[in-house]
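pasting for the record
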Amino acid sequence: MDKKAHWENIYTTKQATEVSWYQPGAQTSVEFVNRAGLSPEAKIIDIGGGDSYFAEQLLDNGFTDITVVDISAAALERAKERLGSKAAGITWFVADAANFAPPAIYDFWHDRAAFHFLTEEADIENYLKTAHAALKPAGIFVLGTFSEEGPKKCSGIEIKQYSEASMQQRLAQYFERVGCINTDHKTPFGTVQNFTFCSFRRR
């Protein structure tokens, strides 16, 4: 399957509220940012951010150095259109999370539901190495994936589920666990998806 073509098709044929991952706010992610105690100048990167509201909330909360990465150019264009003049306050990159080359070193790396699409060990390992290298010493890495109680597919694509334990074990070489939660996401269709969210510190 051509991953990029798949996601470009999704974002050009469906409205925001017609996809399962839509949420009008990103409260869980914002709470992890708040707990990290970051300064307004902290460099924050959002992997697979698409047209989510997370970056917009960061801007509204006073953060000034935000990067959003997504495989879909259409998703990012939709986000820019929604943000209007505020979009200039964000750095945008079209790239696949499996082989993204970060342009800077960050204080905070955020990923809600991009990582779980990586099912091949080589892609997972490359992603984790990349995140580790792109974070400052003791930088924070926040990862949200479908839990073992969540869906096994998203947008027709098989994903890799994680529990708190399996996520910690997989990341242990590069990151030290700070804290985890399980949380339910209610889709626009009324279904519930259970997520594992964990915060880690770069070793």
